[in-house]
Design goal:
This protein is mainly beta. The protein has 3 helices and 31 strands. It has 2 domains: about 220 residues, no CATH class; about 160 residues, Pnp Oxidase, Chain A (Roll), CATH 2.30.110.
Length: about 450
Amino acid sequence: MAQQLYFSRDSKLFIEWSGTTGLWEVPILDGFSFSQATNSSEITLAEMESTTGSSRRGRRLFNDSLAPVEWSFSTYMRPFKSAGGGAAGNADNAAEVHSVEEVLWALMAASDTYSSYQFTRAANAVSGPVVTPGTGSETITFAESNRSVLPTATLYFFVNTAEANPVVYKLTNGAVNEASIDFDVDGIATINWSGFAKEITDFSGSVIRQAAQPNNGETTIDTTAVAVGDIWIDSDNDDAFHIMTNIGAGTEADVQAIDEGTSATNNFIRNRLTQLAITADDTTTFPGASSNGIYTLTLTGGNITITNNLTYLVPEELGLVNKPIENITGARSVSGNFTCYLAYEDTGNNGTSTDFFNDLTTTGSLEQVVNKFDLIFKVGGSAADNSVPEVQFHLDKAHIEIPSHSIEDVISLETSFHGLGDSIGDTDEVAITYYGPVPT
């Protein structure tokens, strides 16, 4: 009998919102990973020689607990304007802007509810929606993210959806820890996601692939009766991914994964079009070229990293192998860097990179405990009219460090920055806005 092999290029990721109120397909790039380790204790012997000249040198290992699952993958940033109509697989019932990866932003920013095609906070809400689609743009805020525990979702890593014997790994209670966005001048805007989950389960036996919705009494791959929570792959609809939500005589129901925008070819963001606008809060210390505090820098690369600094509570009872309980958030951090050529211009109203470096190293600026700059990264351009896919990161109170010179064929500056809130307890370090075209 020939062995069936599985290839990473045949893999797909699906994310199930709590209570199966939402389900998304999120295309991922090569290099994804997930693993779970065991926390163990070692006992060793150390004794002197006996009268016979021997000394026991043995050791024992004991499993204490399972460590949380660690997962990571990369996605492209892919905004799009929905076709609307509320059809199965569509992002909404109106022509509003969404992003393929919006569910991950919602989890990271502490949304606990998905309803009416947007992500909000129901438990002790302090502000408006977390992820808000709109006719012109989609906005993501972190106003609800001051939480000690983040909401979780279920991640399904699915290999070979079109084959008779697929493999499915189910990661329960998955939480998003970090999103790192890279601006490679010759690349496509990419987010590197990482996080944790409670445990990994081989869910391959709970799959049924056929052309019609499964009926009560039909069986999955492991020959057990179809049950709530099982996966149905619709072979008559491009292998659409469904999760069964009800099983009974004539009452079968399921939820289909939202996959709008995943097969489009016009919603990839080109980094080469990225622009950076810098406006100083203190125009006296940082005047720019004409005392307006504005600096216009042409980037050659950069990064923005947003992290929740999650840890997991894991009990360690004697005689038991415990599992992780839940995530606990640490300090929220928004930071990054950008690079640009060292440039000089003897005319113009906006400061150049040379002006920027000189103003940051003047005596007055070095005496400031915190400097404040308004940074707007316009990734993919600045049209903001849905003609091309774009995303903007707005840090209105960024602390910027003194740039360092990189001496190469063309001399460059590399600058690190930190997004800060109005006060130490505020959540307005960064705001994200997507603009997307109609998928084609």
